[in-house]
Design goal:
heterodimer, A: alpha/beta, five-stranded mixed β-sheet, 21% strand, B: alpha/beta, 6 helices, 43% helix
């Protein structure tokens, strides 16, 4: 009985070889491939640091340059709050997960980096914002001597 | 009796373990686990694609700083009001025309009495209202920057896209000196005036 089965198996195997049927694709390397992808993402991506509390629809511009050193960048988000029930309709400034007023900007900037002259401040401003608040922030940044500013924007084909 | 039972229990598991063939770990679920991890990372991370329009704010103002007097013709006054309308040199203008006007203003070299003496002396002044929309402001800045970059790229003899992709650190020495010369020929001088409080 067992011998017959064995013989059949051998025959089948031989047949397969003869007719050159495509063998099953081995999925043994799939975990390796996925892990490689995973490592790639872990290396290239950074964790989301702040939870955005304001709306962010960045404006479009053509003459964009890439920010140089991500460790020397601090972000200021400006826009209307997402939760209008709690925070109202007017534009607010967000820095490090909290809403702030322009007067707090110099203190928070110097907290983040001792040498503010090396720091680039990335202003992530919603396109529907008004210039008033942005100028207040800019004046405060100038006071704090953090003069390198970057208006965050989305690339646009020109 | 109790002792015997304990002995039996103690010995028995070891015996059965020894008899078993070494178990193979099933690696079939490995792919699923890695996929889960991958998806987790995809969701929680962001690929840094920080791009933006860089500007340099003027240094802190001191009271005893001398006031520089600049000839009126060397300043291109751009006003943007709370209704996002443009007034360039006292005449209304569309944003789409601003780039060409800035180029004309910079490359005038003394021909037109209303425009600049030389690109090195030229200053673009932008004044906004508190109610001006950020989108319009950035468009204006972008147009002026485009004008400067176009002229600089021309000065270097490369297309604008190549100028934008120019990486100073990686460039060779001839391109570096060209880049510096272009920057010197067309220094970016944008002045932002104190804004009025209209339309807040």
């Amino acid at each position: 009985m067992f011998d017959k089965l064995k013989q059949n198996n051998v025959k089948e195997a031989l047949n397969k070889q003869d007719s050159r049927e495509t063998p099953m694709i081995s999925t043994a390397s799939l975990p390796d491939i996925v892990l490689m992808l995973l490592f790639f993402f872990m290396v290239t991506a950074v964790m989301r640091e702040t939870n955005l509390l304001v709306e962010q629809r960045l404006p479009a511009a053509t003459q964009l340059t890439r920010l140089q050193d991500p460790t020397l960048v601090s972000h200021i988000y400006i826009g209307k709050p997402k939760d209008t029930q709690r925070f109202g309709q007017t534009e607010l400034i967000q820095m490090n997960d909290v809403f702030i007023v322009p007067n707090q900007v110099p203190q928070l900037i110097t907290q983040e980096q001792e040498d503010v002259t090396r720091l680039t401040v990335s202003l992530k401003v919603d396109r529907r914002s008004k210039m008033g608040l942005i100028n207040d922030v800019k004046r405060k940044l100038r006071e704090a001597n953090a003069r390198k500013i970057n208006y965050s924007a989305i690339g646009e084909q020109h | 009796m109790g002792f015997a039972v304990v002995l039996f229990l103690k010995i028995n598991p070891i015996n059965t373990m020894a008899k078993r063939t070494p178990m193979e770990v099933n690696a079939g679920s490995m792919a699923d686990i890695s996929f889960l991890l991958l998806i987790f990372f995809l969701v929680t991370t962001q690929i840094p694609n920080e791009k933006g329009l860089p500007i340099l704010l003027p240094p802190k103002r001191n009271i005893d700083d001398p006031i520089h007097k600049v000839k009126d013709r060397n300043i291109l006054v751009v006003l943007v009001n709370a209704k996002n309308q443009l007034l360039v040199e006292r005449a209304p203008m569309n944003i789409s025309d601003l780039q060409q006007t800035t180029i004309d203003f910079l490359t005038n070299k003394g021909h037109n009495p209303a425009y600049s003496d030389s690109p090195a002396k030229a200053i673009v002044s932008i004044k906004t209202d508190r109610g001006t929309s950020y989108d319009t402001y950035l468009k204006v800045m972008d147009k002026i920057q485009t004008a400067y970059n176009t002229l600089r790229a021309e000065h270097m003899g490369i297309p604008l896209t190549a100028y934008l992709a120019f990486d100073f650190e990686k460039a060779n020495s001839t391109m570096k000196s060209k880049y510096k010369a272009a920057k010197e020929a067309y220094p970016l001088r944008i002045s932002e005036a104190e804004q009025s409080s209209v339309g807040e």
